[in-house]
Amino acid sequence: MVGAAVACGLVSSPLTRSLKIAVIDGSPISFDKVKKSDIPDPRVSSITPATVSFCKDIGTWDDLKSKVAPFDSMQVWDYAGLGYTRYNAADVDEPVLGYVVENGILVSSLRARLQGSDVDLLCPTQVDSVIFPHRVGGLPEEEGSNWAHVSLKDGRSIATRLVVGADGGKSKVRKMAGISTTGWDYMQEGLICTVRVDEHHSTAWQRFLPTGPLALLPMNDDFSNIVWSTTPKKAKELKSLPSEDFVNAVNNALTKDFSPPPKSGFAEVLTNRFLSPYFGNLAPSATEEFQFPVKVKSVETDRLSFPLSLSHARSYAAPRVVLVGDAAHTVHPLAGQGVNLGFGDAAALIKVLEKGVRCGLDVGEISLLNEYENTRKFANLPMMAVLDGFQRIFSTDSGPVNALRAAGFNLVQSFGPLKKLVISSAMSNGFSGLPGLLRI
Fold first, then answer.
1. Which of 100, 50, 82, 78 minimizes the C-alpha distance to 204?
2. Considering its fold, how many domains does the chain have in total?
3. 215-219, long-range: CB within 8 Å, 24+ apart, which pairs?
4. Terminal CA-to-CA distance of the chain, rounded, Å?
5. Helices (DSSP H) in 359-414: which residue ranges?
6. pLDDT tens digits for 272-330?
7. Contact yes or no for 161/150 (Cβ under 8 A)
8. Which is nearest to 424 in space by CA: 391, 383, 395?
9. Which of 307, 308, 340, 306 is closest to 324 using CA atoms?
């Protein structure tokens, strides 16, 4: 997905559209546009306004905009029932906080953009091996002698100035480039499925449970998407439940043990008396009461699950190779930032390659690629640290930690400037510093 986005961006830019580009994909590529299905696929992404701006720039938004489900509010609360925070698009003067879109539709829009372009689509095939040079530059050499050489499993081979590794968390390109990773397994699985709810809504709901967060995301009509992060044992149990029992389990997990609804307490007094008089309280949602989530009526698709982990490549770049998306970093899905960080990578790489072409540089020059790496690490690492911290804090069940979480929830809920900062940070994808429509 992210690799195709890079290709779309390069063919959309006057500076880079003359580059010879090949996309290698292990799946057959169909140019038939994916339509909204009667029942949405459970594999979805939550995309931010910054990602939407990027999609507009690379020419895919027109195909996407009628197939996404917007959400303009979000509610996050704790299983302990001691605190909550509501976010609203009006808090930052935006029409929406984000959109939920099926992954298949997102991929289809990228492929449609590449149709008719000069991009070579090599599929279905896979990379068999890549030979990278030890360094790039130095004394003049015969063209191609210090390029990367890619061998495909169908027998074809390619010599290229730059390999963009966008082949996922278990990246073969990253391994062949000798780039190591750091990270850890959360000992959790993410269970996903599509459900039908009792009424259409435009709110993203998320409750933090002792075993992991449960999110209920709006889809079109009366459908919603479930993302339930939990232990492997619990995920197996949930997948094996009869449909009716699973629906009851979801509703109980969203509503159990908070009656009456959580109220703001000490933090509200603190902000009203000491902070708001100086900083103001400009967030409309600061006065919104807790709302009960919509009720799930039925499960409409298979329940799928996948392991959750954090990983980060020690380097995003090496001679003739650069990593983007999950090949460079994977995060916990609790804030839906994975695909947005990946598109942020794509936008930053396109910008750097445009600079290289404009200055007459080799696009595989390591100094150029290091500029991309520095930009994206500056954006990705803080977000990864925050998400990992949230996961750890909310998976701890003890009285003092519960009270601390509640205070944090209520402080963000009551103090408008802090709430606006949280929303703006989540919506930006780390696109700051990028030109034009690539930032909000």
1. 100
2. 1
3. 215/334, 215/336, 216/250, 216/254, 216/293, 216/294, 216/296, 217/44, 217/46, 217/69, 217/71, 217/100, 217/336, 218/69, 218/70, 218/71, 218/100, 219/40, 219/44, 219/69, 219/100, 219/194
4. 22
5. 366-394, 399-414
6. 554 455 445 556 666 777 888 999 999 999 999 999 999 999 999 999 999 999 999 99
7. no
8. 383
9. 340
Q: Are strands 157-160 and 73-78 parallel, antiparallel or unpaired?
A: unpaired
Can you give the CATH number for the domain in which 124 is found?
A: 3.50.50.60
Residues 6+ away with beta carbon under 8 Å from 105? 34, 36, 64, 67, 68
Whether 247 and 198 have beta carbons less than 8 Å apart is answered as no
| pTM for the model | 0.87
Q: Which helix (H) or strand (E) holds 84?
A: strand 84-88
Residues in the chain: 440
Do 316 and 371 meet the contact criterion of CB atoms below 8 Å apart?
no
Q: Which two tokens stand for residue 122?
A: 């090599």
DSSP secondary structure letter of residue 139: S
Q: Which of 303, 312, 287 is nearest to 379 (CA)?
A: 312
Could you tell me which residues are beta bridge partners of residue 151? 129, 157
Beta-strand runs (E) in 119-254 = 120-122, 127-131, 148-152, 157-160, 163-165, 181-197, 203-209, 212-218, 223-230
Spatial separation of the C-alpha atoms in residues 127 and 25, rounded to whole Å: 9
Token pair 């090599």: residue: 122
In 3D space, the residue among 90, 336, 387 whose CA is nearest the CA of residue 216 turns out to be 336
Which residues in 197-228 are b (16+ Cβ under 10 Å) and which e? Answer: beeebebbbbbbbebbbbbbbbbbeebbbbbb
Element (H, E) at 11: helix 2-12
Tell me the residue range of the domain where 108 lies: 2-438
Dist. CA 80–CA 256, nearest whole Å: 10
Q: Which token pair is 381?
A: 């690492």
Read off the tokens for 392.
């750890």
Q: Residues 106-152: pLDDT tens digits?
A: 999 999 999 989 999 999 999 999 999 875 554 445 556 789 999 99
- R_g of the chain computed on alpha carbons: 23
